[in-house]
Amino acid sequence: MTLVLLATGVLTAVPPPQRAVGQDGGLSSRLEVEGVRIALLVSPGQVGVNRFLVTLADGDGRPLPAERVLLGFDYQEQDLGGSTASTTAGAPGRFEAVGGFVGLPGTWNVRVAVGRTAGPDAEAVFKLSVPDAGRPGLIPAPTGAAVDAGRRLYGQLCARCHGVTGFGDGPDGVGLKPPPLNLNAHVPFHGDQQLYRFIADGLPGTAMVPWKNTLREDEIWALVHYLRATFKEQEQ
Ligand code: HEC
Hints:
Bound molecules: heme C
Shape: elongated
Helix content: 10-25%
CATH architecture of the largest domain: Sandwich
Radius of gyration: 23 Å
Low-confidence stretches: 1-25
Order of helices and strands: EEEEEEEEEEHHHH
CATH topology of the largest domain: Immunoglobulin-like
Number of domains: 2
Largest sheet: 5 strands, mixed
Strand content: 25-35%
Distance between the termini: 68 Å
Structural class: alpha+beta
Number of helices: 4
CATH class of the largest domain: Mainly Beta
């Protein structure tokens, strides 16, 4: 292993944010650096163990052999110190690594450093946005303090439409189409992750706007815990 990430003479490209958040097919993105087409596929593209497949091609799309490919991982949301991984060569121009390099949801810079047999080394940085689905361990505990925080937020932000009792009868909900849902009837049908996504991402085409730019993650979880603790199936 003589190839060092960020070694002198390495070509670096930081692309305009290139991220494709796939549903099942994982995350994939491609970049061209000095005639080398570098594609990165991350599957399943979620927190935990992922397969990182790097494919290299020349300007005409033909597989481009390389001596080795190294990966570097940097979490953009907070400083975790970064980590690196080597890859295993498969068919010409294909390199693969499997491991739990992406341990948190959010934006990661994945650095792909290519040591070439012929021609200059190349390096590209991919921005990957890792969704927070499927990692129950990340849900903060529904402590009494979290539920209390959720109750306060609900009263300030949500009750005006959904109503203090959750029946969808808040003053600002009058006349909305579709109307604010009765949370007593709906909350029991959704898992915590799903409720988190409804609140964070909103429901397009309705008065339920996304809250993720207004509220922190822990505040959204506090709301989820409050909804769970409060709105159970009841007669109206
Ligand atoms: C301006 C009015 C309004 C506000 C404020 C509002 N909502 Fe909503 N909300 C709606 C409407 C309308 C819908 C129903 C959309 C639909 O029918 O698909 C909805 C849907 C939802 C759902 C989805 C329920 C389901 O089963 O599909 C949840 C959960 C929810 N809101 C929670 C909240 C929380 C928590 C807040 C406060 C942070 C909030 N809402 C603030 C109007 C509002």
